[in-house]
Amino acid sequence: MDIISIHNYTMDIIQEAAERIRKSFSQKVEIETKADANDLVTNIDKETEMFLIEKIKQYDTNHRILGEEGMSHENISNLDGVVWIVDPIDGTTNFIRQQRNFTISIGIYENGVGKLGYIYDIVRDELFYGIEGQGAYINNVRMNRLEKLPLNEALIGINASWAVKNKRINSERVGELIRYVRGTRSYGSATIECMLVATGKLDAYMSMRLSPWDIAAAAVIAKEVGAEFTTLKGEPINLLHQDTFIIANASIRQEIIEQYVELLPVEIK
Amino acid sequence: MDIISIHNYTMDIIQEAAERIRKSFSQKVEIETKADANDLVTNIDKETEMFLIEKIKQYDTNHRILGEEGMSHENISNLDGVVWIVDPIDGTTNFIRQQRNFTISIGIYENGVGKLGYIYDIVRDELFYGIEGQGAYINNVRMNRLEKLPLNEALIGINASWAVKNKRINSERVGELIRYVRGTRSYGSATIECMLVATGKLDAYMSMRLSPWDIAAAAVIAKEVGAEFTTLKGEPINLLHQDTFIIANASIRQEIIEQYVELLPVEIK
User: Fold this and answer.
1) Chains A, B: CB contacts under 8 A, how many?
2) Do A177 and A48 belong together in one domain?
3) How many helices (H) and strands (E) would you count in chain B?
């Protein structure tokens, strides 16, 4: 894998994709719902994914693509070879309602190892990227490694819905965490929240249900600044299925999981 | 009250104050805690408030000032005459930790009536203002009046802490609201959340405890686009003390209060 060639190519196509999304701001966007009524997709998500798929296949027809909207129609059941994990618009509800707080996210994995990660917050014009072992950058400026802090001074990204009684996590324990930390925030885009952690603007972000395209790019970038990411069981993330997720400053990840996370038994249907 | 003169003057001093805050990004900021360990204040909050007080007194020594940091040492027990209600930095924790998502907020009231409101998101360079009966603007572009929507399609700004059992509001009912709406967000700055509602990027924002300087400017701006704001009892806001608060698209404010808000009896100490 020619890291420099693929890096330059990805920097180009992500800018092109961004320009296409920017143009859509002045157009009427077509909105559909997916499985869940609150899970939205637009023609712009699909067109952007198609654009990225075409460009990736032009680069190397042997590279496989796992995309949120499934436009490549590839059945990815393993991470052998080179796999691009793509979310054309992470934060689609924000894209529709706010025209901000969404990103393009591209993670590039070789035999399951994260090699390159790109997250572009188009409206803020912040392009984050990480190259395995080479560091992480925002708009080509090197990102610092994270400094330690105690949990009671932490800002945590968590959606309020996990503090409400639910089938996945003990909400009372989540409530204790919320009361213990300095504050909580919620921005509606996993990639933005991961990059806030990677830049020390949040100290942790957790969710009960994230998909590979929500975290593949972020994981590559986060690793380069010393942020830790695992499932809420403390296990390595798996990029082939949906799972729980936490990314955090290394000084507090384990404490959060051990002291405040109690996952509930999955019901057998 | 000479609305045009005071408007031009305020536009100038808010830009000057912003420039001082921008310069502080490259300096070491001094941080203190207030009553609560998570309620932070910096030398920049205080210096910015002092700067604004001096400028306001230069404009008219009879104008009184109610500021978050209390630097004017005026005892404001009524809203007679002209009162400027000032928050030099709304979102101080964000200012310290994120260097974004904070604002300067200035509301100007005459005999208790909101005449002018200014909220400046410095980092995003979005200056919102409203002039009573004359409309509201972002960077001098007229803001649209809000369109109706059903509550189940709404994005709601609410901090996760109100979904956790607390002494002020029935958290289970809050949980029902969180489950019913399209999604929730939390940005850590009341003025930013109010302006997201005023621009239709959120549909409601509620808090159990806001102070006059958190909402004085926002109320003037919000009124001009048809957003409604009251206490969580549905009563008019009072700018002389802390209270509960909701600002919302007019199509959903009453439904939220009637169906999902159950305030708990205040304990007598």
Assistant:
1) 82
2) no
3) 7, 14
Residue B184 carries which side chain, given as an amino acid letter?
A: T
The answer to whether the CB of B107 falls within 8 A of the CB of B220 is yes
**Which pLDDT belongs to residue B268?**
63
Considering the domain architecture, whether residues B111 and B182 belong to the same structural domain is answered as no
Copy the structure tokens of residue A52.
């990225």
* Distance between start and end Cα atoms, chain A: 44
AA letter at B22: R
How many CB atoms within 10 Å of residue A220? 27
State the DSSP H helix or E strand holding residue A233, giving kind and residue range, or none if neither.
Answer: none
B121 is in an annotated binding site: no
Residue B38 reports pLDDT greater than 80: no
ipTM of predicted complex? 0.94
Q: Tell me what pLDDT residue B179 has.
A: 97
**B55 touching A, CB under 8 A?**
no
pLDDT at B195: 98
Q: Does the beta carbon of B98 lie under 8 angstroms from any beta carbon of chain A?
A: yes
Q: Are B262 and B173 in contact (CB under 8 A)?
A: yes
Coil, strand or helix at B139? coil
Nearest neighbour of A38 by CB, restricted to B165, B175, B183? B183
Residue A60 assigned as binding residue: no
- The radius of gyration computed from the CA coordinates of chain A, to the nearest angstrom, equals 18
Percentage of residues in chain B having pLDDT higher than 90: 88
A155–B160 C-beta distance less than 8 A: no
Q: How far is the C-alpha of B68 from the C-alpha of B60, rounded, in Å?
A: 20
- Supply the CATH number for residue B45's domain: 3.30.540.10
Report whether A109 contacts A141 (CB < 8 A).
no
Neighbouring CB atoms inside 10 A of B128's CB total 27
**Domain edge (last residue) among B110, B142, B174:** B142
Q: How far apart are the C-alpha atoms of A224 and A145, rounded to whole Å? A: 8
Nearest to A194 by CA among A248, A120, A113, A140: A248
Range of the domain at B126: 3-142
Under 8 Å between Cβ of A15 and A126:
no
Contact A175 B164 (CB under 8 A): yes
* Residue B95 exposed, middle or buried by CB count within 10 Å (0-12, 13-18, 19+): buried
User: A160 to chain B: which residues are within 8 Å by CB?
Assistant: 158-160, 162-163, 178, 184, 186
Q: Do B210 and B133 fall within a single domain?
A: no
CATH number of the domain within which A190 lies: 3.40.190.80
Give mean pLDDT, residues A67-90: 92
Q: How far is CA B31 from CA A152, A200, B41, B46, in A?
A: 16, 17, 6, 11
Q: Does some domain include residue B83?
A: yes
What is the C-alpha radius of gyration for chain B, rounded to an integer number of angstroms? 18
Domain co-membership, A168 together with A124:
no
Q: How many domains does chain B have?
A: 2
Rounded Cα gap, residues A164 and A182, in angstroms: 20
